[in-house]
Amino acid sequence: MPRLLRVLITLPLLSFTLAACGPGTVPVTSDGDGSSSTSSSSSSSGSSSSSSGSSSTSSSSSGSSSTSSSGAVTTDVLTYHNDVMRSGQYLTETTLTPGNVTSASFGLLHQLPADGLVDAAPLVVTSLTIGGAVHNVVYVATENDSVYAYDANTYALLKQVSLLGSGETPSDSRSCNQVVPQIGITSTPVIDRSAGPNGTIFVVAMSKNSAGTYIHRIHALDLTTLADRLTPVVVQAIYPGTAYGAAGQVGFVPDQYKERGALLLDQGQIFTSWASNCDDGQYNGWIIAYDETALSQTQVLNLTPNASQGGIWDVAGLAVDSEGSIYTLLGNGIFDTTLTAAGLPVNHDYGNAAVRLSLASGTLAVADYFATWNTNAESGSDVDLGSGSPLLLPDQVDASGTTRHLMLAAGKNDSLYLLDRDNMGKYNGNVANSDNIYQELSGALAHGIYSAPVYFNGSIYFAEVGGTLKQYALAAARMPATPTSQSSASFAYPGASPAISANGSSSAIVWAVESSTGSAAVLHAYDPANLATEYYNSTQAAGSRDAFGNGNKYITPVIANGKVFVGTPSSVAVFGLL
Question: SS3 helix, strand, coil % of the chain, rounded to 5?
Answer without folding.
Answer: 5, 40, 55
